[in-house]
Specification:
Blueprint: E1 4-5, H1 7-14, H2 18-26, E2 33-35, E3 38-42, H3 43-52
Antiparallel strand pairs: 1-3, 2-3
Length: 63
């Protein structure tokens, strides 16, 4: 089974505050898992979000 993260755990891993995670969940910008009243984020979805925002470094120019 895949690891599920709370918004608090996602905050501690990314530095993105809980209210932002809640807003993204409410606007369906991120996929969520509902377990009763609890809302969780799949770890792979968090990793995909990070990978999607990755900006590669520029190659170094020879001098």
């Amino acid at each position: 089974m895949e690891k599920l993260l709370s918004f608090e755990e996602a905050q501690s891993l990314t530095g993105i505050r809980v209210p932002t995670w809640r807003a993204w969940a409410a606007s369906r910008k991120i996929p969520i898992v509902r377990l009763g009243r609890r809302v969780k984020i799949r770890e792979t979805d968090l990793e995909r979000l990070i990978e999607g925002g990755l900006v590669p470094a520029r190659p170094e120019h020879p001098r």
